[in-house]
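Forum > Structural Biology > Help requests

Title: Can anyone predict the 3D structure of Ion transporter?

Hi all, first post here. I have the sequence for Ion transporter but no way to get a structure on my laptop. I'd be grateful if someone could post the structure tokens.
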Amino acid sequence: MKEKIYYILSVSKKPGDTSWYFDIFIITLIILNVLAIVLESIEHVRLQYQTQFDIFEIFSVVIFTVEYILRVWTADLIPTYKKPLTGNLKFALTPLALIDLLAFLPFYLPFIGIDLRLLRVLRIFRIFRLFKIARYVEALSFINSVFKKKKEELAISLIFTAFLLLISSAFMYYVENEAQPENFSSIPGTMWWGIATLTTVGYGDIYPVTPLGQFLGGIIAIIGIGLFALPTGILASGFSDEISKRKQQGDYCATCGQTIKVKTDEY
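Reply #1:
Sure, ran it for you. Structure tokens for Ion transporter below:
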């Protein structure tokens, strides 16, 4: 029975089997939940259909709770988590399992005495139900692989960006503070201008008025164009490498992550 449940919960590779129908059911339920969250934000719709929203919420939470429990229970059948109990616990701490948990956990919090004001904030975690679909969309696992392999380069570029933001905000603060003490009141306060300038968004709510400040702002804006092209290049390189690798080695198992060799005429 455990193996059968594990098979049903695994992402189907064959349209028409039990696992495939279960995948379609879960994907549909996730999409309907996201739609319900969006519609609930419209006051007159929420007031008119509150009972229907509540019934659908209870139904979804029951399904997601049972799914989560069964996934954790059958996790030791996955080669990576084959050790009983410790393997199940290790699986429960994986990103996808944590997303599964956050999809229904806020619903149970009032029953353990959580402050209702905090609950209103935690209800936003229901949007995590959208991320549950990552298990069924291969493109999202592809993006995840690229980010994992390029995490060091991305971290370096983000650190460099943070340093440049701090330096540019400090310079602009000392240049513009006298002329605009309300807008450039401190270095942290100036960082809003720095972010808008380095990202080349330029909202226009805060801008330098002194000649030196305008000259400095122009240089920082030009640097920002090249700076934000850096992570773009890193990700483009990562996607190119990953596409080439998958073409050479074949696909990956959605459950265990192991390479599935492509059968050729040589075999």
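The beta strands are 251-252, 259-260. The first strand starts at residue 251 and ends at 252.
Shout if anything looks off.
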